[in-house]
Hints:
By secondary structure, the chain is mainly alpha-helical. Helices cover 68% and strands 1% of the residues. A three-stranded antiparallel β-sheet has the order 1-3-2, with no helix packed on it. The chain is extended and about 150 Å long. Belongs to the PPR family. P subfamily.
Amino acid sequence: xxxxxxxxxxxxxxxxxxxxxxxxxxTSLAAVSTPNFNNSQLDKSNNEFSGxxxxxxxxxxxxxxxxxxxxLSLQDYLVKLSCINPKTARRYLRFSKLEPQDxxxxxxxxxxxxxxxxxxxxxxxxxxxxxxWASDQSREFSHDSQACKIMVSMLVEARMFRDAEMLLGxxxxxxxxxxxxxxxxxxxxxxxxGSELKRAISxxxxxxxxxxxxxxxxxxxxxxxxxxxxxxxxxxxxxLDMARNELxxxxxxxxxxxxxxxxxxxxxxxxxxxxxxxxxxxxxLKPNSLVVNxxxxxxxxxxxxxxxxxxxxxxxxxPNACCGNMIINSLCKSFGTExxxxxxxxxxxxGFIPDEITFGIxxxxxxxxxxxxxxFVYLSxxxxxxxxxxxxxxxxxxxxxxxxxxxxxxxxxxxxxxDRGITPELSTFKVLLAGFCRARQxxxxxxxxxxxxxxxxxxxxxxxxxxxxxHLLLGFNSSSVKVRRDxxxxxxxxxxxxxxxxxxxxxxxxxxxxxxxxxxxxxxxxPDINNIVLRDFCIKNPKRTKMLVDDVLHWGQDLSLSVFSxxxxxxxASRCGIRPITDLLERFPKLSSQLDMETxxxxxxxxxxxxxxxxxxxxxxxxxRRRQEITNNTYTVILKHLCRVGGLGCVQQCWELARVAKxxxxxxxxxxxxxxxxxxxxxxxxxxxxxxxxxxxxHMQLDLCHAFLEYSCSAGFTLVAHALTEExxxxxxxxxxxxxxxxxxxxxxxxxxxxxxxxxxxxxxxNLSPKFEVLAWLIPELCxxxxxxxITNLRESILTEQPLLPLSINNLxxxxxKAGMVGxxxxxxxxxxLKGVRPHDEVYNILLQGFCQNKNFWKVAExxxxxxxxxxxxxxxxxxxxxxVMCMEGxxxxxxxxxxxxxxxxxxxxxxxxxxxxxxxxxxGNVKIVNPVLEEMQERGFHLRETxxxxxxxxxxxxxxxSRALDYLGSMMSKGIxxxxxxxxxVIKCLCRSGELQKALKLSQEMESLGRFHASSIxxxxxxxLLTRGNLLEAVNFLDRMENKDLIPKxxxxxxxxxxLTCRGRQDKAVHLLDLMLRNxxxxxSTSYDYLIQCFVTCHKxxxxxxxxxxxxxxxxxxxxNTWNSLIQKxxxxxxxxxxxxxxxFMVRMGEIPVRETYCxxxxxxxxxxxxxxxxxxxxxxxxxxxxxxFETQWSLIRHLSSFTDNDKNKSKPRFLSRLLSDSGFVRKxxxxxx
Length: 1235
């Protein structure tokens, strides 16, 4: 049974303050939203561009108006949705009013649609528009609860959280409780993902107040965010709530539990952590080692060991080795080894299993406290338990005996080590050297050095002796410590003797010498693992790093913050992967929370660069919460990432933080960000960034302007860029030709030729020089619009340039030819030649292609001869155009000659040259020449490849030479060459036309096995062939198979098949194909609609016909006259003359003229219903169309209208009757004007 929080507990949840948030929560979130950083200040008050972003935003506000879907009709929304589910949308197109059940059915019809996120958002926006449209019909309208549930779910899916929350509030105010907590849970998760924690808590509070329980995943997401932001009290209560509702604990739940405990312990709230562990244990979740370690560490810090022991007894859990060693180490430091050993016995009773490190800690502390006897007792404990002492324990014992002056026993311990197979390390020998030097036992020192040399740890140079080497290993240099012989006759200074009895002493600072050796002995007793980690840390060996960190924890020590920071900084600066960094952060959450600003900034940047942006964002949010300074580079890195893949809400939140912090990116980063912002249509932010940069970097304003204009115009926002330049000009900022060039190119790309021309005139008036590539865009636009004056001026300006620029000439020639002004291009070339200028080869090629495009063969031949004499290189594109013209003109010899010329000039493009010739030979219908060309290819050693095979098969198929096409098709497939779709399409078409349907079906099966799309024509010819043979069912099965196997390409066209199926009575399948076209992005032709409507009319399915007719009109398709007439007459027959009349009038407004029978049908229907007034009005409309009504119809109306008495309130009827009589040749008696 799920337990629900009562109002009292809710109030306790929020710390007994005003719901729905605690005062602490409000304060913390306010800190997030209004940070106060001390980054570089930007003084905008005196800058000329201050406020320019706001001015441009106001001027261009229409470009980013978010209210695009406002004021749309029901039909507008349905048409937008019809490409997703045409059947559902079509059904409601004729509705002028929706009932709650209608809205529910519409939502159900679109609920299961799967598409990409953007498509889903567009769908949901339209459905939300329908939902609100229905609500606005009247105050009494009330949506079905199921419809509300679906709509909320969709809104959350589209990340329209505010709308979803508003709808939930409305539903709740009506006293309706939607089923389950899934909707609220999804909304909470959405708000958390969008970094709107305050709203997430508000929804959670609302949800629990309604007695609903969030989903387990919702709890996890919310708890993670609360822990991340440091709201431990709320997280504590929330986790208890989750546990009390008996939702269970999966892997993620256990991780959340661990994070909550760790966060409580970091904040020193050990009692709350302990209470939570105790309560959660009652629900079957035992604390893991990390949870126990976190609580134990706080107790150790507080030296509250009795409570720690009771905690272990309470949870019936013994600590692991690392935790136990930490406790023993803490006790040794605080109360000595005796107390620590007694506590160890208590832990032993609880089930703790000490290891050699545990006793090693006791040995080290005992030696440090000069309790050598106790140290050997602890060593015996190790041995009695069958454990192997750690080398650090032996080092401590050796140091201990030296400190006690028992140097003669040191070698015994060393022998003990060797007997147990423990190889001495450098640290062990350093202890021995320090002890023997301190005891002045230099004979022993000599032996130790020799042994080190044997182990390969040291190597004596010819100038070194053992004594100087020993001193050097202890940190002394050769000049600071010298051994002297005591030759004094007076007071003896002898400290030791050599092997022949000479008295020796040390010539050094004795106190310093004693202190240094003593420090070596003391350090050997309690190893400083942190220094060892830092010393042995290796970036290239992450496993070694992990082992070193494990050693720190195993010895019960804490990794110091300085070491932790240094390791992180080194990892971030290295090229290592992400795993070592995240492992450290997860293992040491407390240290992670204590990192300084510099390290955190480096960490965020490193995580993003390594693709771990989610973790970087968490750290970034934590920095914001703690009001730590965030560097410019960190803002830049995270904004670049968010602009690429982040949600809009996250981008805007981070953007606002950066703006408040006076963030200014580097110039290269500015360009990247501007590009990304325009890609996301974030125009306001792009303008703000531009303003910020121009204020911060006044010396770079022109460069910034160039970058902004380039990216804005490339993204299709030239109007915004132009508005910006106008505002800058108002500030007397002088723009150069480069800036205007970007605008010109943008206007040309967007086909705003008039604006481009005006801008170009302004550039000329200002004597500016646009970039060369501008002409490539501007000239074709001018030529296309026949702006002859501007073209002439442009040509003159180009020709007056000295020297003439080849790029400008090329652009001008290209523009002339693209616009069909080939004569102008030829004149330009002639002008250049007369001036003695030899144009670039590209100029000749452009003109050659222009003549080919105009199909002026004589001009082509004339220019071609000149080009060859000038040794101009003919491009592949020119060759293609030449062969095309020659083949179409029937000049095949010329085509073969130009082929030979190209083969000589292009040694590397032989296959391409032959393929072009083969293609145009087939296109011109001359198949006979293809065979010799193919034979020639093979004689010259050119094997047929994929492209050539496809061309040949396609060409033979188009020429109806099906047998040879199949031969080549079989040949290429036998060589493992897969034919192209175009090739398959041509062969299948040819087979179907020649009546060989079975072969066509076999090829289709081959395509199916290859997973190839079946184009519209393939499906049509196969279906037509099957239907011609009476195989209707097989044709339908074939179409079904295409759909089921997803072999239908985008933009499929089924118009012809729809006609065939409709004529054979399969309107259901025809409509399905119509819907399939719409779902694939194709709009059916009006003919398809006409056939279906007329068929439905014939089959007496009037509603289906009217639905299709309405859809047709909304798609701006025009029904045929037959469709109109048949539909109107059918509506009339169905007893709906008013609807028929409305259709008839609509038909007339669209420019169609109804046939006489249509008018008569509606009039007769009105007469049969005795609605003579309507009939008479329609009769008048009929006469306005030039139709004369039949005498019987007129007489019937006259007879019935004359029967009305003078007391009839409708005075228009006598007037109409009079007019009708007059038009029919009758004149009222007594009329003086009658003749």
